[in-house]
Amino acid sequence: MKIALIGACGHQGYALNAMRLMPEATLCAIAKGDESENISTYMNMLKDSVNPPKSYDCWKTMLDKEEPFAVSVSPKYFLHQKISCECLRRGIHVMSEKPVAMNFDELAELEETWRKSGKGFIGMHAMRYHPEFRAAYEAVKSGLIGKPLLINSQKSYSFSMERPEFYKKRELFGGTICWVAIHALDWTYWMMGHFDTIFATHTTEGNWNYGSCESSGVIAFNFRNFGQGTVNFDFLKAHKDTVPRDFCRIAGEKGTIEAFNGHARVITHDEIVRELELKPGENIFKDFLDEVRGKGKCLLSSEDTFEVTRIALAARQSADTGKVLKINDFI
Description:
Helix 1 links the parallel strand 1 and strand 2. It is globular and about 60 Å long. The chain has a 9-stranded mixed β-sheet with strand order 14-13-12-11-7-10-9-8-15. It is α/β, with parallel strands linked by helices. Helix 4 runs parallel beside helix 5 and helix 8 packs across helix 10. The longest helix has 20 residues. The protein has 2 domains: 123 residues, NAD(P)-binding Rossmann-like Domain (Rossmann fold); 204 residues, Dihydrodipicolinate Reductase, domain 2, CATH 3.30.360.10.
């Protein structure tokens, strides 16, 4: 089973780690997403492996020559959709870095291309595979706190001047909502279901002169059937802070669940705080490849990927315009 990487700007570690878990898979090639991209870090890392991957300056040439079974797409973010669509048209399964599309037109084209292809497609929404968030999800779905009515979440990244130059331009980067907040929007959708209305705000203050890259913001929303939620997101995590600051709290009729820093806890009206059992971590790309071969089930579906991207794009538009928006208006 031949696997290829396209690009080196995001979380290609998911694919590389999957290769170590799948003896039947071979990393055949790594290609640049565009001519200016540097893939030397990965090539140097793998040069002494038993079957080192080939290096390509052009990803289309790589597809022509290697004909991989699946690809992990992670170039500069504005190229995600273009490359993913071409791979799907060629009959190749795709895991793409997020955001999988930069706007609603791109999203519609990508979804249509996927449906016509009959191939697998997911985004890198890998927080579902963090044991504490998975435990929180399973606790919500098992009814431990009754009907969930409120969720508050946080996603925080640190920032440095080593972030790529393309972060300075919205049309190349996509915005902080679509890069940072989308993780929290994904686990929120996973746990709570479909969004109804959404309102967001963001700012570029304190962004280290990185152009249109937002430093922080807040998103508020109602769900289709019941309940509300918020997400606060930022690039303000202190450089000396070694503790993960990703967090969610779900409140329901019977109690609350919290997930943070490798822990998931529940407290109800009838019992004191209890640690939830955490399952061993799994790999999103391995699960994806197993599913497309009929050998398992991935925690993330293609439909989930498209819906969460739609929510993130709507949140970004709300923050840009100052308007409350209905998610259904973008279907």
